[in-house]
What does this fold into?
Amino acid sequence: MIFLELAEKVLEKNDKPMRASEIWEYACKKGYDSRLNSQGKTPIASLSASVYDNMKYKADTTKFIKVSSGYLGLKSKSYSLDKTIIANNNKPKILEKEMHIPLSNYLVKSKIYSKTINANTTKGTISKGAMKWGTPDIVGVSFREDLHEVVREFCTETNIPTVEIYAYELKLELTLSNLTEYFFQTVSNSTWANEAWLVAFDIENEDPDFNEEIERLNQSFGVGILRLDIEDVASSQVILPARKRNNLDLTTLNKLCTNDDFKKFFANATSILKAPSVSRNAIINSYIQEGNFNKVEQQE
It folds into this structure.
């Protein structure tokens, strides 16, 4: 038996479309996996690639169809909407704003302190609508906390950075259809940052075409991809790492300071940099309590 035959056998026995991971799980329960000619170390990826390649390169003869984002079915079956999982009913329905605090909790574990940016606090001639492609949803900052005071002074005198800044664009779902728009929105919003991240609650990474495109974009532009688990932030997963940028776009950074949230965030980060090392944690905690940085759960 090959992966295509296994997928067809599983889908024949089920009246609803399934993800590649669900097909594999069902196959293992029924013992179909033991009949495979070759399984390999990543059977779910192999199964997914086999089916999607079959649909792509043998469109006239394939037995498979893509019913909805990430879900596979058979051409020979009729799938009514109530039987599909188009709306991902097995996952909690959330709003994008509900991702902000979980992301801040995820970041603070790496000592990255963050702040939500409201584009409507922008002043001057820049239109608020244009700021959708100007400011990210969240900015972050981290400080080198392990440096001796003498080393810090040396870095100050020689202009060696002891701080890194981050840009985070948040989306509920990443699919092949919206990937390009969301990716380049992230690129546009992050030229001033050391690292840029596109953060999503749900990512369609069982589609080989999606995986190929997101890897290409990551390699070309360096934007990292993070799947955020809002219920258990420790289970969040870096799909692709961000590439660190050393030369920042100061012109854009200066322009973005017409946004009150953005300007205040960088003023607060500067205050922390100027403070003695022994005072930094107290200042950071006070900023979190005052809402200058996003509130996070108490860290153990």
Observations:
- The chain has a mean pLDDT of 84.
- Residues 3-83 form a domain with the Arc Repressor Mutant, subunit A fold (CATH 1.10.10).
